Amino acid sequence: MSPVRRIRVAANGGIPNHPRWPALLHARAFAPEAAEALLRRHGWGGIWRWGVFDYHHFHPDAHEALLCVAGSARLRIGGEAGEDLDVVPGDALVLPAGFGHRCLESRPGFAVLGAYPPGQESPSVERAAADAGRRFGARIAALPCPERDPVTGGPMSETWPDTVADPPRK
Prior knowledge:
The protein is of the alpha+beta class. The chain has a domain at about 20-120: Jelly Rolls (Sandwich). Helices cover about 15% and strands about 30% of the residues. It has three helices and eleven strands. The protein has helices at about 35-40, 130-140, 155-160; strands at about 5, 25, 45-50, 55-60, 65-70, 75, 85, 90-95, 100-105, 110-115, 125. Strand 6 and strand 7 form a beta hairpin. About 45% of the residues are buried.
């Protein structure tokens, strides 16, 4: 398994992103046919299978795991000033609450499994908005760190410590 890549992006374009925690990319980290069992084993639920919306959106009340299980796509995470990622089966994104994401382009058959930590299984979906930081910032910052990483099962508190060591991308 490749090392986990941490992606920090400052608030931009009506997407608040997370004030402390980066998005995580686990590249080629799991067998697609075992993705649902992996999520369940690590305590993540509310599992669904679909694609990713083609507009910037975020969840102010939930952290989200997106595991690519079929096809491929180019996603943008972090808002308009964010980063474009090409995802293939076996790739997983773990997005902290508030972190923007959208699908820029997908190839035939693209599908992800989405999942959430316990108690966050029915998140709201918010589109980019100029006042998003003001409206949702406190809720995003107050959401607790999940107990376990959805991919590795390790403690998320080690992956998402409470302090930010490196500044977000602008």
